Amino acid sequence: MKAVQTIQSLIYFFAAGLCEIGGGYLVWLWMREGKSLGYALAGAIILVIYGIIPTFQPANFGRVYAAYGGVFIVLPIL
After folding, report:
1. 3 inside domain
2. pLDDT tens digits for range 34-59
3. Which residues have C-beta within 8 Å of that of residue 73, sequence separation ≥ 6?
4. Distance between CA 30 and CA 11 in Å, rounded?
């Protein structure tokens, strides 16, 4: 059971990281590159999803929240 929770936590970390990076990038494209408003709206929706994903963490959220910082540093490097 503990292995399943660990895998779920890793999936949520990865999904949240992708949403944070992707949503921010879409908003950046809209603001800096002059892309259409659709980019901004898609980015905003993805960023809202990014805010919701951590609430699904099966582990104690207070204990794992700090780990998100480390994951978000590693994901852009990858």
Report:
1. no
2. 999 999 999 999 999 998 998 888 77
3. none
4. 28
